[in-house]
Structures are given as C-alpha cells and as structure tokens.
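Researcher: I'd like a candidate sequence for this fold, 372 residues long. If you have to choose between options at a position, lean toward the conservative one.
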C-alpha cells in the first residue's frame, strides 16, 4: 500500500524501512500518516483505539502472568496434578508466561513510545520478536501435543504408556521449544527479518519481507496444528460415542470402567475448549498476514487481530480454573499461601476435596494401566 504524498516506482510492498527512509528524507514531514508509528501522536489522534488496546493488553498482561504462575505453582502444591500427561500443560504455561510478562509489556511500550524507542534499541527489538515467536509457537505446538496425547489415551490406551511416558513427554516438550526457536531463526539468515511493525505497533517478524516465509509461518504454526488437533478430537468424539453405546448394551457394565470413561471425556472436553480458544485467537492472525500481503488493510485491523492472538496466553489459566477441579484446588492453595487467606474461604460449594490429604489426592489420581 503506497502512503499518500509520494510514489514508489517498484511493485514491492511498502515496508517500515521504506516509510522510515521517506520520513528521514523529509517526505513525511507534513504527512498525517506519521502517527502510524505509534507514540504520543497516535494516542492523541486515535484515543479510543489506543485506550482500548492499552487497557485490554495491560489487564491481559497482569492477569495472564498471575494466572500462569498459578498454573505452574499448582503442580507443586497439588499432587493430583503431578502426572506425565500434565507436562504439556506446564510447557504451555511456561511459554505463555513469556508472552504475558515480556512480550505484552513491550507491546504497550511500542504503543506508548512508538518506533523511536526501538529504533535506538535494535537488539531489544530483535530479542522481543524472537522471544514472541519462540514462545507462541511452543505454546501452540504443546497444545497439539495435548490433543494427540488425549487421542492415544482414549482411543489406543494399550499403547499409551509406550508412547507417552514421562521421559518421552519431556523430550517432546523440549522438541517443541527447539521448533519454536527454529521458527525465529529465518530472521537471522535473511528469509525474513524483525522490525517494529508500522501497523501492529510492536516488534515482530516482518510480514512483508517474504511471501514464502509468511506462507510457511501460517501453515506450520497455525494451520497444521489445527488439522492435527481437529483429527485427534474427531477420533476422540467417534470413539467415545461408540464406547457409550457399547457400555449401554452391557448389562453388568463395570462401574470403574464407566467412571474412567467419564473422567477421560471430561478431560478431553477441557482440552477441546483450549483448542477452540487457540483457533479463535490465532486463525484470524494467520489469515490476515496471508490475505493482506499488499498491506492494504487499515491499522486497526492489524493492531487488534494481533492483540487477540496474544490474548490466547492469558486465557488458558482461566480455562483450567473453570474446567479442572485439580487446578481449582491448586489455585486455592497458592492464593491462600500468597495472601494469607484461610483456605476455607476459597473453597467452593462444588467441593474441591480440600479435606483430603496429599497422599489421598495422589492415590485418587493414580492412572490405571489401560489409560492415562
């Protein structure tokens, strides 16, 4: 998209470098579009948009950081969460907290101070962009790992222990980090680069530098995980439906079998909600960078779609609190210890089984040999 006031002879889309060069040459002196670089000018000219972004991102950063701390701390205080499959959840929380505690605050700085803040700190811009890609990709890959874990656990329980032991899960999580960091390396070798995006108003990979990388990024980071996760949950749904019909026809169906089936289904539903949030937050971003290769859509579209994508890191702890009794128990214990609040004041009517001892909680969650 060509900025008003001057022309460009080539067909290559405008990038931040082009715009900044024109600004340095004096061509942007009287151009109102200079506010697209954030800072006081943008906030003054667009107070509603800026205020909405700063409030939502600020709240998401604070609550998301606190929530992900609670997720990770819950593993230490609630033995019921200490099992191999939850390694993936811990990995998601670890990646998410990097987004909420570092990337989001620097996004706020990018809005408030504009491009000038990062122009004088190129190493900081590179660090934030690299960290953001690595953390977001790792979280999304880990969610894919969760869905595949549930698929094997529910649909192929006989091989679950062979595929998803503790060491194997840790190795997968490490591989997800390697993959996340690997997705940020193209910026160092010239396939793409890291810039202060003039519409997203923060340091991120350059969506206009290489169409091939943009396609690669959207396919590997969003669309491929969506296909894998969708396949996993479709198979889970079909398996559970068939199992329910089979159990219903058995006159002497084992009570333990029914309970185990219900527990597995409940856990799968919880992770399915996480998956739907992932799709809702990240699909618009993946589609945006593909369809707006000419950079023609307005700043507001880019700004708020990226904001929604980053909200994903703040919503996962809330999902755990709503759908998982063991995490509610862990949150309650952590908050009780942090703020010196009696645990009884945090117990809900649904009964978080806070009277159980640690050993009882551990025993109640010992996986059977036929499932996770």
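Model: Candidate sequence:
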């Amino acid at each position: 998209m060509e900025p008003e006031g001057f022309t460009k002879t080539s067909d290559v889309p405008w990038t931040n470098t082009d715009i900044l060069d024109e600004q340095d040459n004096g061509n942007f002196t009287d151009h109102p579009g200079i506010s697209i670089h954030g800072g006081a000018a943008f906030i003054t000219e667009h107070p509603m948009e800026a205020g909405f972004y700063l409030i939502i991102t600020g709240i998401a950063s604070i609550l998301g950081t606190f929530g992900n701390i609670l997720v990770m701390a819950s593993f230490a205080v609630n033995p019921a969460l200490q099992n191999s499959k939850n390694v993936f959840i811990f990995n998601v929380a670890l990646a998410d907290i990097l987004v909420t505690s570092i990337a989001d605050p620097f996004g706020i700085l990018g809005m408030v101070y504009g491009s000038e803040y990062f122009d004088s700190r190129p190493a900081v811009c590179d660090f934030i962009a690299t960290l953001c890609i690595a953390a977001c990709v790792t979280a999304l890959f880990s969610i894919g790992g969760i869905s595949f874990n549930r698929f094997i656990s529910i649909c192929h329980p006989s091989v679950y222990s062979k595929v998803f032991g503790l060491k194997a899960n840790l190795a997968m999580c490490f591989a997800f980090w390697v993959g996340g960091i690997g997705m940020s390396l193209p910026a160092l070798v010239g396939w793409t680069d890291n810039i202060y995006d003039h519409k997203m108003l923060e340091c991120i990979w350059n969506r206009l530098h290489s169409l091939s990388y943009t396609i690669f990024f959207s396919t590997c980071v969003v669309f491929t995980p969506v296909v894998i996760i969708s396949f996993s949950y479709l198979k889970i749904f079909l398996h559970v439906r068939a199992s329910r019909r089979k159990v219903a026809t058995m006159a002497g169906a084992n009570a333990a079998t029914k309970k185990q089936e219900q527990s597995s289904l409940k856990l799968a539903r919880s992770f399915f909600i996480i998956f739907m949030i992932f799709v809702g937050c990240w699909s618009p971003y993946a589609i945006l960078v593909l369809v707006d290769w000419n950079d023609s859509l307005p700043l507001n579209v880019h700004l708020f779609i990226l904001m929604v994508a980053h909200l994903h890191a703040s919503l996962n702890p809330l999902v755990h609190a709503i759908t998982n009794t063991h995490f509610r128990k862990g949150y309650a214990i952590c908050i009780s210890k942090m703020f010196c609040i009696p645990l009884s004041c945090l117990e809900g009517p649904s009964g978080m089984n806070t009277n159980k001892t640690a050993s009882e909680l551990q025993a109640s969650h010992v996986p059977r040999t036929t499932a996770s």
